[in-house]
Design brief:
- This protein has 98 residues and is α+β, with helices and mostly antiparallel strands.
- It has one domain: RelE-like (YaeB-like fold, 2-Layer Sandwich), CATH 3.30.2310.
- It has two helices and five strands, in the order βααββββ.
- It has a five-stranded mixed beta sheet.
- A hairpin with a 3-residue loop joins strand 3 and strand 4.
- The longest helix is centred in the middle third of the chain and has 16 residues, at 27-42.
Length: 98
């Protein structure tokens, strides 16, 4: 049985900010980046434990897209749900507060 993937408002705000910044220089690259991050998130409905836990916060996991864009998420096995929490450009900012 698949997990349900839920995009939190914080993630959507983060992703929107990243895509707008990239789009200012290259709209096509921004679209590809946004699609890649969303597709990777949606793929978590199958085997959501595929990515490593965050050492300082073991209840969270993360994956990286295009070397710099970290996405943080939490798996709720009881509800069979994956909550996508944040998306961060590691070149510009320290990891987000969650």
């Amino acid at each position: 049985m698949d997990f349900k993937v839920i995009f939190k408002d914080t993630f959507l705000e983060d992703l929107g900010r990243i895509v707008r910044l990239v789009a200012a220089h290259n709209p096509a690259a921004a679209r590809r980046l946004g699609e890649s991050i969303i597709e990777t998130c949606e793929a978590l409905r199958f085997f959501p434990e595929r990515y490593p836990k965050v050492r300082q916060r073991p209840e969270l996991r993360r994956f990286i897209v295009k070397k710099h864009f970290k996405t943080f998420y939490r798996v709720d096995h009881d509800c069979r749900r994956v909550e996508i929490l944040r998306c961060w450009d590691a070149r510009r900012e320290a990891d987000p507060v969650m």
